[in-house]
Design goal:
The chain is mainly alpha-helical. It contains 15 helices and no strands. The chain has two domains: 19-141, no CATH class; 204-317, no CATH class.
C-alpha cells in the first residue's frame, strides 16, 4: 500500500520526449531543406553550414568549461543553433563570418545568460542580427546563382533576390514589368520549390513546410504560434498596399523558416496557450510591417527577436488560473 502513496516535488507527469530527442527531431525536419540548398548552391552551402556548426560546438564547449559547467554538446542544441544560423546566411559569405556569428550566438546570446533554457532571445537569430548590423554588405550581397535558375526566379533578371526586387523594382528595370513578372505563376512556382537565390534556408518553401508539419504532428512545435504567425501575416499582406500578391509573400524570404523553426523555440516563446497565439500574431504583424514599410526587404528575424523580448510579459498576463485559487472580491 505504501508504494502507491509516493510524495515528491513537482512535476508529477513526465514524458518520453527529452531535449536531445527534440533537437534531433528538429534537425531531421531541416535535413531536406539543407540537402536541397547544397543541390542548388553547391558545396559552398555545405562548407558554410559545417563551419557554422563546428564553431557553435567549439564556442559552447569553451564557454561551459570556463564557467565550470558540464559540457553538454550531446544535447544537440549547439548543432541546431549552427544549422539555423547557417540557414540565415547567404551562401557566398566570407568563411570567417559564420565563425564570428556563431561565437556571438553561443557566447553572448546563450551561455552568458545561463545556457540552454535561460536565454531570452533566439541565439541563431541574435547571431544573424549581429552580423547584419556589423557587416550588412556581406549579408545582403553575397548571393550565389541557384542551379537551373536565377537569383530572382525570373529568367530575364539575374542580379537580385525576389524580396530585394520587390523592394526596389525601379533599380532593375521598368517597375510595372518587374512587378508583373513577380506575380506570375512561374515565379511563384520557383519560390515554392526553391529555385531562387537567398539565404540557405530561404529557398524551398515546400521542404520547409513538410519539415514544419512533421514537427507539429509529433508534438514538438505548437500549431498556435505557426498559425497565428502565418495567418496574421497573410491577412496584412493581402489587405495592406503592397505590389506583390499573397502567394509571393508567403513563399518568399524566410517566412516558413521563421514560423516553423525559430518562432516556435521552446525557451524564447510563451508557455501559455493564449500567449502563444499572441506571440505568433505579433510576429506576423511585425514581419508584414517591416517588409512593407521598413528599410530591409525581410522582417522575419527582427520580428521574432522583438517578440522574444516580450515573452515574459506575455506569459505574465496570460497565465492560467491556479486550481483552487481565490478570486479577488469573492468571499468563501
Amino acid at each position: 500500500m505504501k508504494d502507491l502513496l509516493i510524495v515528491s516535488a513537482s512535476p508529477h507527469i513526465s514524458g518520453k520526449l527529452d531535449i536531445s530527442l527534440a533537437m534531433k527531431a528538429v534537425i531531421l525536419a531541416l535535413l531536406p531543406a539543407f540537402i536541397f540548398s547544397v543541390y542548388i548552391f553547391g558545396w559552398r552551402a555545405l562548407l558554410v553550414t559545417v563551419i557554422t556548426i563546428v564553431s557553435c560546438m567549439i564556442s559552447e564547449a569553451i564557454m561551459q568549461r570556463m564557467l565550470g559547467k558540464k559540457i553538454t554538446l550531446d544535447d544537440g542544441s549547439a548543432v541546431l543553433t549552427g544549422i539555423l544560423l547557417a540557414f540565415n546566411l547567404p551562401p557566398g559569405v566570407p568563411l570567417w563570418l559564420p565563425i564570428v556569428g556563431s561565437v556571438f550566438a553561443i557566447v553572448f546570446a546563450k551561455q552568458l545568460f545561463g545556457g540552454l533554457g535561460y536565454n531570452f532571445i533566439n541565439p541563431a537569430l541574435a547571431g544573424r542580427a549581429f552580423l547584419m548590423t556589423s557587416w550588412p554588405s556581406f549579408m545582403t550581397k553575397e548571393w550565389l546563382i541557384p542551379t537551373g535558375s536565377t537569383l530572382s526566379g525570373i529568367d530575364s533578371i539575374t542580379s537580385a533576390t525576389p524580396l530585394t526586387l520587390l523592394k526596389n523594382p525601379a533599380n532593375f528595370g521598368p517597375p510595372e514589368v518587374i512587378i508583373q513578372r513577380l506575380n506570375e505563376m512561374a515565379t511563384i512556382k520557383n519560390l515554392f520549390i526553391g529555385k531562387v537565390g537567398g539565404c540557405l534556408g530561404e529557398t524551398s518553401a515546400l521542404l520547409l513546410l513538410i519539415g514544419g508539419l512533421f514537427l507539429i504532428i509529433v508534438g514538438i512545435v505548437d500549431y498556435r504560434i505557426v498559425t497565428g504567425y502565418l495567418v496574421s501575416f497573410g491577412i496584412l499582406a493581402f489587405v495592406l498596399p503592397t505590389k506583390a500578391n499573397l502567394p509571393f509573400h508567403l513563399f518568399s524570404g524566410g517566412l516558413f523558416l521563421g514560423a516553423f523553426f525559430m518562432a516556435t523555440d521552446w525557451v524564447t516563446s510563451p508557455v501559455t496557450k493564449k500567449g502563444r497565439w499572441i506571440f505568433g500574431i505579433g510576429c506576423g504583424v511585425l514581419t508584414a510591417v517591416i517588409r512593407i514599410w521598413g528599410g530591409y526587404p525581410e522582417g522575419v528575424s527582427y520580428s521574432i527577436l522583438l517578440m522574444n523580448v516580450f515573452t515574459p510579459l506575455i506569459d505574465r498576463f496570460t497565465k492560467e488560473r491556479i486550481f483552487g485559487e481565490k478570486k479577488k472580491g469573492v468571499k468563501l
